[in-house]
């Protein structure tokens, strides 16, 4: 798959933005409690808002929940 760029507007989730752009991703609760939308982070720093990852997993920044988490950096590269 080719690389694509998306801009996540204030008030929108990463998951909503990707779906609106035609990216089909799994999800279930959309509240950050189930882990279904967990996605690998290739670059950038996530701002974790989920209730799934441990403190150590959050600190590592290797994955994030797309339904509720945001980005602390201007760009976030995800393994979709």
From TrEMBL:
Residues 1-80 form the 2Fe-2S ferredoxin-type domain. PROSITE patterns: 2FE2S_FER_1, 2FE2S_FER_2. This is 2Fe-2S iron-sulfur cluster-binding protein. It comes from Actinomadura sediminis. Pfam families: Fer2. Gene3D superfamilies: 3.10.20.30. It comes from the Bacteria.
């Amino acid at each position: 798959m080719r690389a694509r760029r998306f801009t996540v507007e204030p008030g929108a989730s990463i998951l909503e933005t990707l779906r609106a752009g035609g990216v089909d991703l799994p999800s279930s609760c959309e509240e950050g409690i189930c882990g279904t939308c967990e996605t690998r982070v290739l670059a950038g720093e996530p701002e974790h808002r989920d209730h799934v990852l441990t403190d150590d997993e959050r600190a590592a920044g290797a994955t994030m929940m797309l339904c509720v988490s945001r980005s602390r950096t201007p760009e976030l590269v995800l393994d979709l």
